[in-house]
């Protein structure tokens, strides 16, 4: 039996990292002692946790060196064997493994797209990964392209970098796909990265041809006011709805026609995986890095050129206009979802 600690700066938010962290700790705690370390005071995870998972709220220190002393003290006190860093901004915890003086091992998990940052020459993100992963015992990424890039750019070997895609607790939903549904769903933080503004812009044209269809966007964030203003200015308030946080996944996916994802970049795109679990077709920008691992173009959905509103609109209209195609995509979505079961 091992003592495993996961670190995430914030755990009380709704998001992909928070969801995956809860899924992981709930599996590990079946055979190990599991802790969640966070800098949130009196934090409670928004996702359900096994009662045996211990949450330790820490006080953020005035500088990184003091953070390291604090984390090291907590890890030693609880006899931790593995520290799993779930937040890329705190990858400097891996400095605790300089000269391998600590007995515990450190795994750095990169949930975002290193390929996106590298391809767009975002130097500070690339160099930060170089520094943060150098001393880590292992690096875990979500997609093959990120594995290859870590190895190529930093010279890491197979025993240093691992691809472990996100998974969901794939309960058999037993939901029959509703091909008559005229509701498109979108899910994610209301953040500029998700480019919901482009989805709303595209839906202006959809509404002109199919006024009986609607778009529901689930999630919350700093872009909410801006997006609502866009909806109101384009007279879409009767067909485009900002639904806020959903209480359960059924709210966001059950009895919907298909999912549309418009992120500028993704580490993986867990909302796509959730949609597949509900047998939904998916239209998504083919952004770096995750969507193409889950969506096969013209098989269980459409991969659209990133940020191309015209092509996005065309694919939306295509799928809306073809119920038989939606049914075919739905069947293939279920088959695709089986590749991401926890056991695999």
Walk me through what this model shows.
The protein has 344 residues and is α/β, with parallel strands linked by helices. 36% of the residues lie in helices and 17% in strands. It contains twelve helices and 13 strands. The strands form two sheets. The protein has a seven-stranded parallel β-sheet, sandwiched between helices. A six-stranded parallel β-sheet has the order 10-9-8-11-12-13, with helices on both faces. Helix 6 packs across helix 11 and helix 9 crosses helix 12. The longest helix has 15 residues. The radius of gyration is 21 Å and the shape is elongated. The model has no long low-confidence stretch (mean pLDDT 93).
Topology at a glance:
Elements: E1 3-7, H1 16-28, E2 33-38, E3 54-57, H2 64-77, E4 82-85, E5 105-109, H3 114-119, H4 123-134, E6 138-141, H5 144-154, E7 161-163, E8 183-187, H6 196-209, E9 214-218, H7 224-233, E10 240-244, H8 249-253, E11 258-261, H9 270-277, E12 282-285, H10 291-294, E13 301-304, H11 309-320, H12 323-337
Parallel strand pairs: 1-2, 1-4, 2-3, 4-5, 5-6, 6-7, 8-9, 8-11, 9-10, 11-12, 12-13
Helix pairs in contact: 6-11, 9-12
């Amino acid at each position: 039996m091992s003592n495993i600690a996961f670190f995430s700066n914030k755990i009380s938010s709704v998001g992909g990292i928070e969801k995956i962290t809860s899924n992981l700790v709930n599996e590990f705690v079946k055979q190990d002692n599991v802790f969640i370390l966070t800098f949130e005071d009196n934090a409670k995870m928004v996702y359900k946790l096994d009662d045996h998972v211990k949450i330790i709220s820490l006080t953020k220190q005035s500088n990184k060196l003091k953070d390291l002393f604090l984390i090291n003290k907590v890890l030693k006190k609880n006899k931790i064997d593995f520290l799993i860093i779930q937040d890329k901004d705190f990858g400097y915890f891996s400095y605790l493994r300089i000269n391998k003086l600590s007995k515990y091992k450190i795994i750095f998990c990169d949930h975002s797209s290193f390929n996106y940052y590298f391809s767009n020459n975002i130097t500070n993100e690339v160099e930060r990964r170089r520094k943060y992963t150098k001393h880590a015992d292992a690096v875990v990424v979500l997609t093959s392209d990120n594995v290859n890039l870590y190895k190529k750019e930093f010279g890491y070997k197979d025993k240093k970098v691992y691809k472990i895609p996100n998974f969901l607790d794939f309960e058999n939903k037993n939901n029959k796909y509703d091909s008559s549904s005229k509701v498109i769903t979108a899910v994610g933080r209301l953040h500029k990265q998700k480019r919901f503004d482009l989805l709303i812009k595209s839906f202006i044209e959809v509404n002109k041809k199919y006024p009986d269809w609607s778009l529901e966007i689930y999630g919350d964030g700093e872009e909410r006011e801006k997006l609502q203003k866009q909806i109101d200015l384009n007279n879409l308030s009767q067909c485009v709805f900002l639904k806020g946080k959903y209480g359960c996944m059924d709210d966001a996916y059950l009895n919907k026609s298909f999912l549309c994802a418009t992120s500028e970049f993704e580490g993986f795109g867990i909302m796509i995986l959730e949609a597949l679990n509900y047998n939904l077709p998916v239209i998504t920008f083919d952004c770096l890095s995750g969507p193409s691992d889950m969506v096969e173009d013209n098989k269980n959905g459409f991969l659209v050129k990133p940020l191309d509103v015209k092509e996005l609109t065309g694919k939306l209209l295509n799928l809306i206009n073809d119920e038989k195609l939606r049914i075919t995509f739905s069947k293939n979505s279920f088959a695709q979802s089986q590749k991401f079961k926890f056991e695999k």
